[in-house]
Amino acid sequence: MTSDALTRRDGLMDYLASGGQYYRVGGSGKVQGVAQCVQDLSPSECQDCLSEAIGRLKSDCGSAAWGDMFLGKCYARYSERGGYSNNGSNNGSNDEVEKTLAILIGLIAGVAVLVVFLSFLSKLAEDRGGK
Predict the structure, then answer these.
(1) What angle is formed at CA 14 by the lines to CA 12 and CA 20, rounded to 5 degrees?
(2) Residue 104 in 3-state DSSP?
(3) CA-CA distance, 12 to 29, in Å (whole number)?
(4) How does pLDDT run across 39-91, given as a tens digit for each residue?
(5) So what's the architecture of 3-129 in CATH?
(6) pTM, two decimal places
(7) Domain boundaries, the chain
(8) Is the Cβ–Cβ distance between 49 and 73 less than 8 Å?
(9) Which of 37, 65, 113, 121 is buried most deeply by CB count within 10 Å?
(10) In 10 A of CB 14, how many CB atoms?
(11) Which residues, 6+ apart, have CB-to-CB distance to 61 below 8 Å?
């Protein structure tokens, strides 16, 4: 990635991080990006999650032509046109699959947290009932 493309990528990532919506899309020159949260997050939790994902994208992907970062409840991606591993012919359907995958991962994580919480409550009720 050229220094101009890196500057464009960083500007795009800053734009995506400052959005305020659950689904954000943008581009600058040949650099395109998307950021998304599951909608069970509050706007501030979404903002925090995306800020972390975008920060990790910048640090972990360095000057790579593309990068993806999935966290428990959010997702961020950038690519330099022509630098992503797709040939671009199925981009619309791939985006839909990626959105669905991000939402499913978030839902699975939410269910796991709920199960752990309910197990904790059950154990707490048993402990109080035994005394």
Answers:
(1) 105
(2) helix
(3) 10
(4) 898 888 998 999 999 999 889 988 888 899 999 899 999 998 754 444 444 45
(5) 2-Layer Sandwich (3.30)
(6) 0.58
(7) 3-129
(8) yes
(9) 37
(10) 12
(11) 67
